[in-house]
Amino acid sequence: xxxxxxxxxxxxxxxxxxxxxxxxxxxxxxxxxxxxxxxxxxxxxxxxxxxxxxxxxxxxxxxxxxxxxxxxxxxxxxxxxxxxxxxxxxxxxxxxxxxxxxxxxxxxxxxxxxxxxxxxxxxxxxxxxxxxxxxxxxxxxxxxxxxxxxxxxxxxxxxxxxxxxxxxxxxxxxxxxxxxxxxxxxxxxxxxxxxxxxxxxxxxxxxxxxxxxxxxxxxxxxxxxxxxxxxxxxxxxxxxxxxxxxxxxxxxxxxxxxxxxxxxxxxxxxxxxxxxxxxxxxxxxxxxxxxxxxxxxxxxxxxxxxxxxxxxxxxxxxxxxxxxxxxxxxxxxxxxxxxxxxxxxxxxxxxxxxxxxxxxxxxxxxxxxxx
Length: 371
Known about the structure:
alpha+beta; Helix Hairpins; endopeptidase fold (from Nostoc punctiforme); two-stranded antiparallel ribbon; about 10% strand; hydrolase; protease; Papain-like_cys_pep_sf
């Protein structure tokens, strides 16, 4: 009876060990929550960066248009100044001529006029010429002043736009730095989660092995006790074996991707990525030589090696083999972004709108292999 009770107690202990293993801190769930929060930060920063890039693009258009307006205002001001000077010179010549010849002409007009109205008309004509000259000259002066004011206003607006451009560029650099830091944190959390999951697996495996060992020991003890009771009348018989049955322990699984696959395909992938250096980044771009986005580049490079992979970055990470020993030809995955690893701590990527496919320093991430 005592042996049976001991066997039942051992079974309960085994169940307890299987249900409540002890995990190392921090736990996988804690790390996954941290990763979730950090990925949300990455998404927010990527959204901010996209908005800033759109603003910078519009600002560049505004600066171009404003510059053209300033050039036109300068041309208009130059024309107005020339007209003012021309009218001023014409008026001076007419006044000089009229006053130099004026005495004889005026007396001749009085003497030769048969009617007083003829004299009045002649005098009115002279007065009208003077008034016309003054009016035209004033109009040119006013026009020049308006153009000068417009030019000053446009130049002020141009200065404001240029200051705004400096501000946007600074904000872009700041967001880029924060985004790179957040992506690096996500990469670190991915590694920490993988390590925690491995620790958890090892702890569970150790618990299973210990439970199996104890269960086997208890079963052997119970069997020995039963044999002793059954053979109590033959105490000189050989003693039943009390050796503990061996318990097979499954070998721990090897980390995925430790052995490289088709290195020839990997080299083709790297060569295809190099062939696209300088190609402009285009949202949703899948056209080699003219426009690619990040996942379009990785998909094209693999296609050159005869390997078909999904279109977007998340699907590529899910479909490939995650490896710890990154090799040239692997995809470098970070949330929302992928690149081709070329070795030596470098990768080829299509970074963002306004940029081109280029070689960059490796920024953490997860290695994904298809070759």
